[in-house]
Amino acid sequence: MSAKDLRGRTAFVGAATFGCGEAPGYTAIELAAEAGRRAVDDAGLKLSDIDGLFICLPNDFLSGLTIAEYFGIHPKMTNNSRTGGSAFLTHAEWAMLALDAGLIDYALICYGSNQRTGAGKLVSAQAPSPFEFPYRPNNPVASYALAASRHMHQYGTTSEQLASVAVAARQWANLNPEAFKQGSLSVEDVLATRLVADPLHVADCCLVTDGAAAVVLTRADRAKDARKTPVSLLGAASATWHTEIAQLADLTITAARESGERAFAQAGLTPKDIDVVELYDAFTINTILFLEDLGFCPKGEGGRFVSSGAIGPGGSLPVNTNGGGLSFCHPGMYGLFTLVEAIRQLRGEAGERQIAGAKLALAHGNGGTLSSQATCILGVPETV
Amino acid sequence: MMAEVQPDIEYQAHLAEGHFMIQRGIASGVHHFYPRAIEPGTGRALEWVEASGKGKVHSVTVISRKPPLEPYNVVLVDLAEGPRMMSRVDGIDPAAIRIGMAVTARIVEEDERQFVVFVPAEEA
């Protein structure tokens, strides 16, 4: 058996979000449980159908146990492996394997965080490194700023080009009633916000919000009976190259190059085939790096590509159609929201921001400081 | 068998004695930072060698803070021996730090702990 044999063997049959933006009074587990219930409802299933449970919560290292107990179910497989914000796309990869092997029948992947109303800032589970903390990098932003500086140095990328990523995200958010940040935003507006870590301004950084998301994945045979049209998982792959930014050999090339190559190979597709792209945009540099590394534009061309208007509404490659982590929501580990939006686009459920006729979508998660990368390629039934 | 090196403790002890030591693969001859119990990539044994202290700024960011607190810099430095490390450059306006700038290591002490910073090479 090869990785290609997994193409289309599983499909997403449920997807939900809950509490995006501000959800005062809710704990992280409450938010995750509510999103999970909604995704199960969306799939036309019962909680008791779920026998594979995948989760990360901001600060509960045994969250798989917590959520199983909370749901009152006895899953055959419980997984709360953490790779940062990419974890949920890696969960999809593992769920795909377990479903295909017949170990489980229905996998629920869920996440919730109350970091905005609970803590007021990013809640990180990462231990400080003894080889970083004396220098007080205000991570994660400092590490991403170091990558951005390097990209500017090597390829002439500009602050204006970085800002255009935030502008496109806001234009999409203005079409998404669930988005936390709405209103007009220009390149000049972004550049007028406070510098946090040069070259990144406040508006180059993701939001700090609450929010929860969940998806249900099952085998293709069972997916046929789902309430809604299933969205097939055509390729899923992950890659990890480092944890501290100093250990990334070339600060302008991430492991997304590797996860993307393997996901595309599994799906038998190329970037040209993709109709809609959902990337983990923790910072504006992310979108540029991942568009390059995933093959949507040549290395070094990302700045010019994003500032051409290509990724915004009406552009040639719709990117982060929900408004992304920059303007939709970012509860700390955003990865699962890329999958939910890809599913909504392929189901035709995206309202004003719907990409007409979208058949193939790419969702990409990032974790740590550009450290772990995970790519999923999804398609409507006729693409299998 | 006990590990032949206790990298964290030994690294700090060297710094406390005024020596910036990095590791080299005994078989590979490749230098590494940060200190590890085994050589990354091969798992083989490492030895300590004194770093030349010469390096170049690979990337730089200036962290802004609310006034009256001053901004400060965080850099990545490529050591002449090959490895890259996070650090800061002292003795210069943070806004004047450039990628490619030659720098020299200094050992400083803050909060009773020694660590390596850099200064512009021409001032060393």
Q: Please tell me the total number of domains of chain A.
A: 2
Query: Structural class, from secondary structure content of chain B?
Result: mainly beta
Strand arrangement within the widest β-sheet of chain B reads 6-5-4-7-8
In N-to-C order, the SSE pattern of chain B is HEEEEEEEE
Contiguous low-pLDDT stretches of chain A (5 residues minimum) are: none
Q: Characterize the main sheet of chain A.
A: 9 strands, mixed
Largest interface: A-B, 27 and 23 residues
What oligomeric assembly is this protein in? heterodimer
Strand order of the largest sheet of chain A: 3-2-4-7-1-8-11-10-9
Total number of helices of chain A = 13
Helix content of chain B: under 10%
The best one-word shape of chain B is: globular
Mean pLDDT across every amino acid position of chain B: 94
Total domain modules of chain B: 2
Organism (chain A): Novosphingobium cyanobacteriorum
Protein name (chain A): Thiolase
Pfam family, one (chain A): Thiolase_C_1
InterPro entries (chain A): Thiolase, Thiolase-like, Thiolase_C_2
Overview of this structure, please?
The complex is a heterodimer of chains A (384) and B (124). Chain A is an alpha/beta fold and 384 residues long. Chain A folds into 2 domains: 138 residues, Thiolase/Chalcone synthase (Peroxisomal Thiolase, Chain A, domain 1, 3-Layer(aba) Sandwich); 215 residues, 3-Layer(aba) Sandwich (Peroxisomal Thiolase, Chain A, domain 1). Helix content of chain A is 33%, strand content 19%. Chain A has a 9-stranded mixed β-sheet, sandwiched between helices. In chain A, strands 5-6 form a two-stranded antiparallel sheet. The radius of gyration of chain A is 19 Å and the shape is globular. Chain B is mostly beta strands and 124 residues long. Chain B folds into 2 domains: 44 residues, no CATH class; 70 residues, OB fold (Dihydrolipoamide Acetyltransferase, E2P) (Beta Barrel), CATH 2.40.50. Chain B contains 1 helix and 8 strands, in the order αββββββββ. In chain B, the strands form 2 sheets. Chain B has a 5-stranded antiparallel β-sheet. The radius of gyration of chain B is 16 Å and the shape is globular. The interface between A and B is medium-sized, with 27 and 23 residues.
